[in-house]
Specification:
The structure is a single chain. With 180 residues, the protein is an alpha+beta fold. Helix content is 28%, strand content 32%.
Length: 180
């Protein structure tokens, strides 16, 4: 596991960032299922496996490995993001063989619906870029479904560079950061 430093734990006046603990697992999984239900209500099949009990990203294991970060207001989880220090099989299939040693892979950004409209996603992504650093890592990588124009525009608006499309229907983005 790579070393990391949380440089700033507050992303808003009342929302703090922290590494998820095993005690957060149930609430994190509930938030992901809630997000999948919300996506379905919007006509998207994205994350639909969660509604059938499939967790392709193994959030429970990722929490145990220290790869998940939560954003809390008191005891309430307002948001979550997975930050893999080693690429998953999925990441390798999207990105090929280059650049993995210096990259962090972002997955499962989710916002509790009670916090929608507060620009929490932008604040979380700002924290990912500036509030935490990983030893030897100088780039952030993510993917998103190519057909979601709003999400693609969001990532570009916060400085992520479009790196291409994959035949699986996903676009890939990258942002350079300062290594720890």
């Amino acid at each position: 596991m790579s070393e990391f430093t949380i440089k700033e734990d507050m992303i808003a006046d009342d929302i703090a960032a922290a590494q998820a603990t095993p005690e957060d697992t149930s609430a994190v999984m509930s938030l992901l299922v809630q997000t999948a239900e919300w996506l379905r209500s919007k006509g998207s099949s994205q994350w639909s496996g969660l509604l059938e009990g499939e967790d392709t990203h193994d959030m429970t294991g990722a929490i145990a490995n220290g790869d998940v970060f939560v954003f809390k207001q008191g005891d309430q989880i307002a948001g979550v993001i997975m930050m893999l220090q080693q690429p998953s099989e999925w990441d390798c299939s999207l990105w090929g063989e280059e650049g993995h040693e210096s990259s962090i892979y972002l997955h499962r950004l989710a916002i509790h619906r009670a916090y929608s409209g507060r620009r929490l996603g932008a604040a979380m992504m700002r924290w990912v870029d500036q509030g935490i650093s990983f030893a030897g890592k100088d780039r952030l990588r993510l993917d998103c479904i190519a057909s979601n124009d709003a999400l693609n525009a969001f990532y570009q608006s916060i400085g992520y560079e479009y790196k291409g499309s994959h035949s699986s229907g996903f676009n890939i983005y990258e942002k350079t950061t300062s290594p720890m």
